[in-house]
Protein backbone atom coordinates (compact mmCIF):
# COMPACT_ATOMS: atom_id res chain seq x y z
CA UNK A 1 0.00 0.00 0.00
CA UNK A 2 1.32 3.46 -0.92
CA UNK A 3 0.79 6.38 1.49
CA UNK A 4 1.45 10.05 0.90
CA UNK A 5 2.87 12.93 2.87
CA UNK A 6 1.91 16.58 2.35
CA UNK A 7 4.54 19.30 2.48
CA UNK A 8 3.65 22.98 2.14
CA UNK A 9 5.70 26.11 1.66
CA UNK A 10 4.39 29.64 1.77
CA UNK A 11 3.61 29.45 -1.96
CA UNK A 12 2.60 25.88 -2.74
CA UNK A 13 2.02 22.37 -1.41
CA UNK A 14 3.56 19.10 -2.56
CA UNK A 15 2.50 15.49 -2.24
CA UNK A 16 5.23 12.88 -1.97
CA UNK A 17 4.66 9.14 -2.13
CA UNK A 18 5.95 6.97 0.67
CA UNK A 19 6.62 3.59 -0.89
CA UNK A 20 6.53 0.45 1.24
CA UNK A 21 9.83 -1.30 1.82
CA UNK A 22 10.20 -5.01 1.20
CA UNK A 23 11.73 -7.02 4.02
CA UNK A 24 13.94 -9.96 3.17
CA UNK A 25 12.81 -11.74 6.34
CA UNK A 26 10.22 -14.46 5.92
CA UNK A 27 7.72 -15.42 8.60
CA UNK A 28 7.26 -18.96 7.29
CA UNK A 29 9.41 -21.56 5.60
CA UNK A 30 9.70 -21.14 1.81
CA UNK A 31 8.88 -24.03 -0.52
CA UNK A 32 12.21 -23.52 -2.26
CA UNK A 33 15.41 -21.53 -2.07
CA UNK A 34 18.66 -21.21 -3.97
CA UNK A 35 21.93 -22.76 -2.87
CA UNK A 36 24.25 -19.91 -1.96
CA UNK A 37 21.49 -17.55 -0.81
CA UNK A 38 21.17 -16.24 2.73
CA UNK A 39 18.45 -17.75 4.93
CA UNK A 40 16.54 -15.36 7.18
CA UNK A 41 13.27 -16.60 8.68
CA UNK A 42 11.55 -15.27 11.80
CA UNK A 43 9.08 -17.86 13.04
CA UNK A 44 6.49 -17.18 15.72
CA UNK A 45 5.26 -20.17 17.76
CA UNK A 46 2.91 -18.99 20.49
CA UNK A 47 2.88 -22.40 22.21
CA UNK A 48 6.67 -22.69 22.14
CA UNK A 49 8.16 -19.24 22.76
CA UNK A 50 11.91 -18.86 22.60
CA UNK A 51 11.73 -16.90 25.86
CA UNK A 52 10.22 -19.99 27.49
CA UNK A 53 13.22 -22.19 26.81
CA UNK A 54 12.19 -23.55 23.40
CA UNK A 55 14.48 -23.81 20.38
CA UNK A 56 13.14 -24.35 16.86
CA UNK A 57 15.09 -26.78 14.69
CA UNK A 58 14.93 -28.19 11.17
CA UNK A 59 16.48 -31.31 9.72
CA UNK A 60 16.50 -31.64 5.92
CA UNK A 61 17.39 -34.96 4.28
CA UNK A 62 17.60 -36.12 0.67
CA UNK A 63 19.49 -38.73 -1.33
CA UNK A 64 22.00 -35.96 -2.13
CA UNK A 65 22.77 -34.84 1.39
CA UNK A 66 21.56 -33.39 4.67
CA UNK A 67 21.55 -30.04 6.44
CA UNK A 68 20.25 -28.78 9.77
CA UNK A 69 19.09 -25.37 10.98
CA UNK A 70 18.87 -24.21 14.59
CA UNK A 71 17.12 -21.05 15.72
CA UNK A 72 18.34 -18.27 17.96
CA UNK A 73 15.96 -16.39 20.23
CA UNK A 74 14.51 -13.07 19.09
CA UNK A 75 12.23 -12.21 21.99
CA UNK A 76 9.49 -14.86 21.89
CA UNK A 77 10.19 -15.61 18.22
CA UNK A 78 12.68 -17.97 16.61
CA UNK A 79 15.24 -16.58 14.16
CA UNK A 80 16.49 -19.07 11.58
CA UNK A 81 19.52 -17.86 9.67
CA UNK A 82 22.36 -19.22 7.57
CA UNK A 83 24.88 -17.30 5.52
CA UNK A 84 25.68 -17.72 1.85
CA UNK A 85 28.78 -19.84 2.48
CA UNK A 86 26.73 -22.32 4.52
CA UNK A 87 23.88 -22.72 2.03
CA UNK A 88 26.32 -22.99 -0.89
CA UNK A 89 27.20 -26.41 0.52
CA UNK A 90 23.59 -27.64 0.22
CA UNK A 91 23.34 -29.95 -2.84
CA UNK A 92 20.46 -29.09 -5.17
CA UNK A 93 17.65 -31.58 -4.50
CA UNK A 94 14.19 -32.02 -3.01
CA UNK A 95 14.56 -32.55 0.73
CA UNK A 96 12.24 -34.01 3.34
CA UNK A 97 12.06 -31.31 5.99
CA UNK A 98 11.30 -32.02 9.65
CA UNK A 99 10.35 -29.05 11.82
CA UNK A 100 10.56 -29.56 15.57
CA UNK A 101 11.17 -27.80 18.87
CA UNK A 102 13.31 -28.76 21.82
CA UNK A 103 13.05 -27.45 25.37
CA UNK A 104 15.88 -26.90 27.80
CA UNK A 105 14.38 -29.68 29.95
CA UNK A 106 14.98 -32.19 27.13
CA UNK A 107 11.42 -32.27 25.74
CA UNK A 108 11.23 -32.64 21.98
CA UNK A 109 8.06 -32.12 19.87
CA UNK A 110 7.79 -32.62 16.11
CA UNK A 111 5.65 -29.88 14.59
CA UNK A 112 5.51 -30.67 10.88
CA UNK A 113 6.97 -32.65 8.01
CA UNK A 114 7.15 -31.11 4.56
CA UNK A 115 9.47 -30.71 1.58
CA UNK A 116 11.86 -27.97 0.56
CA UNK A 117 13.59 -27.69 -2.80
CA UNK A 118 17.16 -26.43 -2.92
CA UNK A 119 17.72 -24.99 -6.37
CA UNK A 120 21.22 -24.87 -7.91
CA UNK A 121 23.28 -21.72 -7.58
CA UNK A 122 23.26 -20.45 -11.15
CA UNK A 123 25.10 -17.27 -10.20
CA UNK A 124 28.42 -19.12 -10.00
CA UNK A 125 28.06 -21.12 -13.21
CA UNK A 126 30.67 -20.27 -15.84
CA UNK A 127 29.84 -22.98 -18.37
CA UNK A 128 26.81 -24.67 -19.92
CA UNK A 129 24.60 -26.29 -17.29
CA UNK A 130 21.62 -28.64 -17.60
CA UNK A 131 19.17 -27.27 -15.05
CA UNK A 132 16.47 -29.88 -15.62
CA UNK A 133 15.39 -32.01 -12.67
CA UNK A 134 15.86 -35.76 -12.76
CA UNK A 135 12.15 -36.23 -13.44
CA UNK A 136 12.27 -33.81 -16.38
CA UNK A 137 15.37 -35.50 -17.83
CA UNK A 138 13.74 -38.93 -17.64
CA UNK A 139 10.49 -37.60 -19.11
CA UNK A 140 12.34 -36.01 -22.02
CA UNK A 141 14.39 -39.18 -22.59
CA UNK A 142 11.39 -41.50 -22.60
CA UNK A 143 9.41 -39.18 -24.85
CA UNK A 144 12.30 -38.94 -27.31
CA UNK A 145 12.71 -42.72 -27.37
CA UNK A 146 8.98 -43.35 -27.91
CA UNK A 147 8.96 -40.81 -30.74
CA UNK A 148 12.05 -42.37 -32.35
CA UNK A 149 14.36 -39.38 -31.90
CA UNK A 150 16.51 -40.42 -28.92
CA UNK A 151 20.15 -39.39 -29.10
CA UNK A 152 23.04 -41.78 -28.25
CA UNK A 153 23.22 -40.57 -24.64
CA UNK A 154 19.52 -41.11 -24.14
CA UNK A 155 19.74 -44.62 -25.60
CA UNK A 156 22.20 -45.54 -22.84
CA UNK A 157 19.79 -44.56 -20.04
CA UNK A 158 18.69 -47.31 -17.67
CA UNK A 159 15.74 -47.10 -15.28
CA UNK A 160 15.65 -49.48 -12.33
CA UNK A 161 18.46 -51.45 -13.95
CA UNK A 162 16.67 -51.86 -17.29
CA UNK A 163 17.87 -50.11 -20.45
CA UNK A 164 15.06 -48.16 -22.07
CA UNK A 165 15.65 -49.95 -25.39
CA UNK A 166 14.84 -53.24 -23.62
CA UNK A 167 11.52 -52.03 -22.23
CA UNK A 168 8.22 -53.15 -23.71
CA UNK A 169 5.89 -50.52 -25.13
CA UNK A 170 3.66 -50.94 -22.05
CA UNK A 171 6.62 -50.40 -19.70
CA UNK A 172 7.73 -47.33 -21.64
CA UNK A 173 4.34 -45.64 -21.48
CA UNK A 174 3.79 -46.57 -17.82
CA UNK A 175 7.23 -45.27 -16.86
CA UNK A 176 6.71 -42.08 -18.83
CA UNK A 177 3.37 -41.55 -17.07
CA UNK A 178 5.15 -41.97 -13.73
CA UNK A 179 7.73 -39.29 -14.58
CA UNK A 180 5.03 -37.03 -16.03
CA UNK A 181 3.32 -37.09 -12.65
CA UNK A 182 6.58 -36.45 -10.79
CA UNK A 183 7.34 -33.52 -13.06
CA UNK A 184 3.80 -32.15 -12.65
CA UNK A 185 4.25 -32.21 -8.87
CA UNK A 186 7.56 -30.36 -9.24
CA UNK A 187 5.89 -27.71 -11.36
CA UNK A 188 3.16 -27.23 -8.77
CA UNK A 189 5.78 -26.66 -6.09
CA UNK A 190 7.74 -24.25 -8.24
CA UNK A 191 4.58 -22.19 -8.75
CA UNK A 192 4.58 -21.41 -5.03
CA UNK A 193 6.31 -18.24 -3.89
CA UNK A 194 10.06 -18.50 -4.27
CA UNK A 195 12.08 -15.83 -2.53
CA UNK A 196 15.66 -15.10 -3.49
CA UNK A 197 17.60 -13.19 -0.86
CA UNK A 198 20.34 -10.75 -1.80
Brief write-up:
The chain is α+β, with helices and mostly antiparallel strands and 198 residues long.
Task: Give a structural overview.
The protein folds into 2 domains: 32-121, Immunoglobulin-like (Sandwich); 134-190, no CATH class. 22% of the residues lie in helices and 35% in strands. The chain has helices spanning 84-87, 134-146, 152-155, 169-190, and strands spanning 3-8, 13-18, 32-34, 39-43, 54-61, 66-70, 72-74, 77-82, 93-103, 108-119, 158-159, 162-163. A hairpin with a 4-residue loop joins strand 1 and strand 2. Helix 2 packs antiparallel against helix 4. The chain is elongated and about 65 Å long.
Number of helices: 4
| Distance between the ends | 23 Å
- What's the name of the CATH homologous superfamily of the largest domain? Immunoglobulins
Portion in beta strands: 25-35%
**What oligomeric state is this?**
single chain
Structural class by SSE content:
alpha+beta
Summed up, the domain count is: 2
* Number of beta strands: 12
General shape: elongated
Q: Can you give the helix content as a percent range? A: 10-25%
Mean of pLDDT = 83
Stated plainly, the CATH topology of the largest domain is called Immunoglobulin-like
Task: Give a topology summary.
Layout: E1 3-8, E2 13-18, E3 32-34, E4 39-43, E5 54-61, E6 66-70, E7 72-74, E8 77-82, H1 84-87, E9 93-103, E10 108-119, H2 134-146, H3 152-155, E11 158-159, E12 162-163, H4 169-190
Parallel strand pairs: 3-10
Antiparallel strand pairs: 1-2, 4-8, 5-6, 5-9, 7-8, 9-10, 11-12
Amino acid sequence: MVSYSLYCTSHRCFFSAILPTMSNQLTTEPAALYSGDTINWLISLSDYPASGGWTLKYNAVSASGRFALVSTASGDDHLISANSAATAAYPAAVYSLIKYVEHTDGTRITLAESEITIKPNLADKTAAFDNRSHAKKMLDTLTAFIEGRANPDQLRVTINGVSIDKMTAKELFETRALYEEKYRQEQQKSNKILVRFV
